[in-house]
Design a protein that fits this description.
Layout (H helix, E strand, L loop, with lengths): L1 H6 L8 H17 L20 H8 L3 E6 L6 H11 L5 E9 L2 H10 L6 E6 L7 E2 L2 E2 L8 H14 L27 E5 L9 H9 L3 E5 L12 E4 L8 H6 L1 H12 L4 E3 L2 H4 L2 E5 L5 E3 L4 E7 L5 E8 L5 E8 L1 E5 L5 E3 L19 E3 L17
Parallel strand pairs: 1-2, 2-3, 6-7, 6-8, 8-9, 10-12, 16-17
Antiparallel strand pairs: 4-5, 10-11, 12-15, 13-14
Length: about 375
């Protein structure tokens, strides 16, 4: 979201394993046809995870510029840069020194680098910075002063002498797959506000391409679920707004009424948290939620899970997703039937609803069907 505001352009995920190589290639080709510069933000460190940011760069020939925190660092800066460049073959295009104390410090850092590594920019600390919270940065929509911060960062780049763009990359023409319009004439209600904001543009594009009509509503504004054939609750930060959500009777009542009709509910991460009986925030306060799933969610101050995950379904298909959570679920057995759905189109297959007792389809992955088999490193 910060990248979208900074660039003024739509932002999509690239990932060799979950999105897939061919789909990522198509996204890059489409972006290259419209833009002069493509900025790809790496996740975590350059070599962290399998596949890593380095794998993505190597697969598509993307030049890598590494940002290194140079605060209180001298010649070790050069050693770190050299190690990152030589750890594995990647299209290394230089380094950016962050939190530099001044011009003399910047000169010292530049002199520590081997001749084949360029110091692209040396950035001093800013007056303002983007605040952090659990699971990442504070969301762009919550930061009224973000344009000022972005302008300040842009000025720092200008002052550092950053003028030369990285070497050009040629992307082969590629087109993404066009999904069948299996959701034609179906309406999907989508929660969207500060509590349910982890909405990936590719997911919404996919639903629209399949023919669905998207109806957005705000649980924080106590808007009821609009008339729809399915309900989509994306992830976000419901724990930060748990008190307000618990007091919004219109949306809670409409959620319960929607579920009683046995229409499908698709819930991701934070969206799934509000389906349980209660949600205990990080301050220990317990809040009543929708009560559609038996049990309670308790937030913690340590990660409960993180990483890429996959699930092989009995039908032979593979589902892939990413899990990053600070909450634990304490389940209760009240005779509920737990099921996972097979695909988006299965949401609307009424033949799957022949079950005794309430049935809810819980889904923790992003809305993408991965049938390709890839080496762990792309």
């Amino acid at each position: 979201m910060v990248l979208e505001m900074a660039s003024g352009a739509p932002v999509y995920n690239l990932d060799c394993w979950m999105v897939g190589i061919e789909a990522s290639r198509a996204l890059l080709a489409a972006a290259a046809a419209e833009a002069d510069l493509i900025l790809v933000e790496g996740a975590m460190g350059l070599y962290d995870g399998e596949p890593s940011t380095a794998d993505l760069a190597a697969t598509f020939g993307l030049p890598v510029v590494v940002v290194i925190d140079a605060n209180a660092m001298a010649q070790t800066f050069g050693a770190v840069a050299k190690g990152l460049k030589e750890y594995r073959p990647v299209p290394f295009a230089g380094v950016i020194a962050n939190r530099v104390a001044g011009s003399q410090h910047a000169l010292m850092l530049a002199e520590s680098l081997p001749p084949d590594i360029e110091l692209v920019a040396a950035l001093s600390e800013t007056t303002n910075s983007i605040p952090e919270r659990h699971l990442g940065l504070v969301q762009a929509v919550e930061l009224t002063g973000l344009p000022v911060i972005l302008d300040e960062l842009a000025n720092l780049l200008d002052e550092s002498g950053y003028t030369r763009p990285p070497p050009p990359v040629a992307f082969a023409d590629a087109t993404g797959c066009t999904p069948e319009r299996l959701l034609q004439r179906y309406r999907v209600a989508v929660a969207r506000d500060a509590a349910f904001s982890f909405l990936y543009r590719a997911n919404l594009d996919c639903l629209a391409a399949m023919g669905a009509e998207l109806l957005f509503f705000s649980p924080l504004a106590d808007e009821p679920v609009p008339p729809a054939d399915a309900l989509y609750l994306p992830g976000g930060y419901p724990e930060l707004h748990a008190g307000r959500l618990a007091g919004n009777s219109s949306w809670l009542t409409s959620m319960q009424a929607f579920a009683e009709t046995n229409r499908p509910v698709l819930a991701e991460c934070g969206g799934m948290m509000v389906l349980f009986d209660t949600l205990t925030a990080r301050d220990g306060a317990e809040h009543q939620m929708a009560g559609l799933l038996p049990g309670k969610v308790v937030m913690s101050r340590r990660l409960a899970a993180i990483g890429l995950q996959s699930l092989a379904l009995p039908e032979g298909e593979l589902r892939r997703g990413y899990n990053s959570a600070l909450g634990n679920v304490e389940l209760e057995d009240r005779g509920f039937v737990w099921r996972s759905f097979i695909s988006l189109s299965a949401l609307f297959d009424r033949s799957e609803s022949r079950l005794e007792g309430p049935a809810y389809r819980a889904y923790c992955c992003r809305c993408r069907d991965s049938r390709e088999r890839h080496h762990p490193r792309c």
